[in-house]
Amino acid sequence: MSSYRESLKKLSRKVYIQGKESADPMEHPLVQPGTNAVAQTFELEQQAEYNELIFAKSHLSGRPVNRFTHIHRSTEDLMNKVKLQRLLGQRTGTCFQRCVGLDALNALEITTYEMEQALGKPYHQRFNRFLQQVQDENAVCDGAMTDPKGDRSKRPHEQADPDLYLRITGENSEGITVRGAKCHQTGALNSHYIIVMPTLAMKEKDRDYAVSFAVEADAPGIIYILGRQPSDTRKQEPHRADVGNLYYSGQECLIVFDDLFIPWERVFMFKEYQYSGRLVERFAGYHRQSYGGCKAGVGDILIGATAALAEYQGVDKASHIKDKLVEMVHLNETLFCCGIACSAQGGVAPSGAYLIDLLLANVCKLNVTRFPYEIARLAEDIAGGLMATMPSLADLDHPQIGPLMRKYFQGIAGVETTCRLKMLRLVENLTLGPAAAAYLTESMHGAGSPQAQRVVIARQAELENKKMLARALVGREGDDKLPE
Ligand code: SF4
Ligand code: FE
Hints:
The chain is built from 16 helices and 14 strands. It is an alpha+beta fold. The radius of gyration is 24 Å and the shape is globular.
């Protein structure tokens, strides 16, 4: 959407790319494909068949708003979110970035309500005024949670450098100042606001680190450093065909907050360390749900590309190839099932917002740390080694070697060699290239690394209850001293 792109160009930000400050980052070839992916969340608004998915009724204004700015008000809303994410994954073949802000908004809505009720501080009122603005502007928000963390064996206040977790450095009657950084921030340069949250459950000694706020993306004191992706410089080559996905990519940045000032109106948590764990758990829970949608959508692209290659290479009728494609679909749909299930089993929070079933959302994400890797393994198995060894697609245009490429890389009759080679590049993009950062590494570590999901699953496992169920079937003789 041109107005979306224009709104980003108007932001005056300090952005560094490949060791240089960029005067016009939105025009940079490493940035544009990421913006294209977020722009699809606006593009869908123009297509009547997707109205139900992309629009939702705001509980604040009663008006339709883009679902990426909406607070879920039913289990249907939660399921529609996952369906929308799958659709966008299918369209972009990568991370379309806008979900982190949506998940931050929903986690904060529930948590600021609780804080206002219990503490009598106006956090929820402030949050709602911010939310209203986000909905009115149809703004893109970046949900920023992950601190650098330094020595992982030490708490935030124990770190040799106190800035390794983002912290409060001052306060006055106007607001607060903060210093620190947030790592691998999805869609940072494509956002209008940054929503900062603590990265873990804080204890009393870490109270200066229990802080949450929203800030304009171009506030003075914010520095953006663009993250790299595998093979990303192919996007800078004049002949961009070797990128694989010609239009879209994800985006991550390191964001540094250098004594940034935040007015009280935008502060949603200030040293109330008892609430930091709940905020983290809810944000992570929502984002673990999200992966059941987006990764299944990207999986659809990888399965489609693999099936097309099998056909181009004349192996699509082989029974082991059919079996492997079925296995890929089975794994991919299992992720989607998990996203839908944790949504359907969700429930209402005291604020009126709907929260996913946390156990099922964590099961969803733990599967996401494995299944895309297996799907990628099967895709590479079927695609063959050429995806990692073939010459550049630029060679196709050369008068002497172009014909050789076409002759020696041809597949079945009737399919242009170019089609086969482009599809190989797409599989390479998803499994080894720029999108592998979004489809694989992000599946492992995004919304928390696998151990974080195991901790929540262990907490929610109700093993005592399961033991009782088992005991009920074998009788309780000799078991009298155990709890009922
Ligand atoms: Fe959305 Fe998926 Fe990207 Fe997270 S990883 S922002 S859920 S597309
Ligand atoms: Fe993510």
